[in-house]
């Protein structure tokens, strides 16, 4: 089920840098002290930097889906800046990251990202904040919500977004997740290729 039309417009990334997570051990600040910058030309020309958002402290009920999402994005040849969110060992109990470091790191990643993909079935204040920032930065954003849950549980602030680059899609299986992501990436890649250089 499609709640929002797929984005038909994508702006070029305003940065030529990507921040890489060198240390993804959830018990050691998840790389907050070991971020490094690498120039974008180290990546293939068609590689997109993707910010993945999913609940950590709100609950890890859908972490297996997070893993599928990240794996699918990587199988398409793209770079997931926040791959650690899909780490099955990461939880509120195991995450001892410094909040200030996390905020600084994640906002840098979000600004550097070409696209945002979020799994929004489990309510999360952090994911909601990330989506608000993504919208304000005009990042093409895909939200995925599992059909087994009552759609009324999804925040009206997410369901009510009417920005052209923002979409919410319902899924029931891993296969549907892969298809939806494929469609989203194809749409965004095509639109980026059609965008004339500034």
What features would you describe in this structure?
This protein is α/β, with parallel strands linked by helices and 198 residues long. The protein has a single domain, classed as 3-Layer(aba) Sandwich (Rossmann fold), CATH 3.40.50. 32% of the residues lie in helices and 17% in strands. A five-stranded parallel beta sheet has the order 4-3-5-6-7, sandwiched between helices. α1 (63-75) crosses α5 (174-194).
Give the second-level CATH assignment, the architecture. Answer: 3-Layer(aba) Sandwich
Query: How many domains make up the coordinates?
Result: 1
> How is the largest sheet built, in terms of strand order?
4-3-5-6-7
Q: How is the quaternary structure best described?
A: single chain
The name of the CATH topology is Rossmann fold
Helicity range? 25-40%
SS content category: alpha/beta
Arithmetic mean of pLDDT:
81
Q: Tell me the distance between the termini.
A: 36 Å
Total number of helical segments? 5
Give start-end ranges of low-pLDDT stretches: 1-42
